[in-house]
Each structure stands twice: as structure tokens, then as C-alpha cells.
What we know:
6 helices, 5 strands
Amino acid sequence: MNSDSNSEEEQSNKDKYKDFKIIVVDDSDFSRKTMVEILETEGFNIVGEANSAEKALQVAMGTPCNLFIIDIVMPEISGIELAKILNEKFEDSKIIMVSSLKMENVIIESISNGAHDFISKPFEREELINSVQKLAEDASKE
């Protein structure tokens, strides 16, 4: 594939996903920036980033979004607690939980608190993209 068709595909994805807004929440700058870079490269619309639950709530109050991607292990308020709060305040938004904790009870707790998907760290680029694409396509059908 040449660079012209790559840029055409990238522009097509930007058009396709421009109305699907994402906020990425992770206290690890490296993890957060990696997710943002991967998703932006695929044409997704990242409307906010946060390194804590408190910051995520501030960003979410001022920036409507369709999807929150949240790390579970964060200082003060965990990602699972944040998911509970976001589900109450933003019922129409979807949530993907991300964590290096692969214990079954953590995954079950994430899903029972409103997560639509769970991705284990370290994750493969395609795993993140596929999860977000599925939720974006589901949202476009609603």
C-alpha cells in the first residue's frame, strides 16, 4: 500500500469516527499517550485526557464524549469507582477498562460496574483498535 492510499484511509477513518468522542484516563503518562497516539493514528477523535479520576470528571463535565477508556489502578479513586460515577452521570457513554490486573474478579467487577469491554495490559495495538471500532460502530447504529 502506498502512502497516498494510507492517507486516504486515514482521512476516511477521521470522517467515519469524527462524531465518536473519546476521553482516555490513565495515571501512567506513557500508557495514556500510547493509547491516544494509536487511536488518533486510526482516525479516532480524542477529546480529552486525564491522569486521575478527579481530572477525568472535570474533563467529562466540559467535554461530551461517547467513550471513556479507563485504567483500573489509579491513585485515590480507582478506575472501577470512576466507572460507577460516569455510568450514573453519562448513561449513554461507553466504557473500556484497561489494566495489568488480569484476575477474573477484577474483570467481572469492571463489567458489573458498566464497562463494555476489558483490555489487559500490555495490550496489542489491534486489540485496542478493534475494541474501540466495535463500540464506535455499535454507537452509530443506535
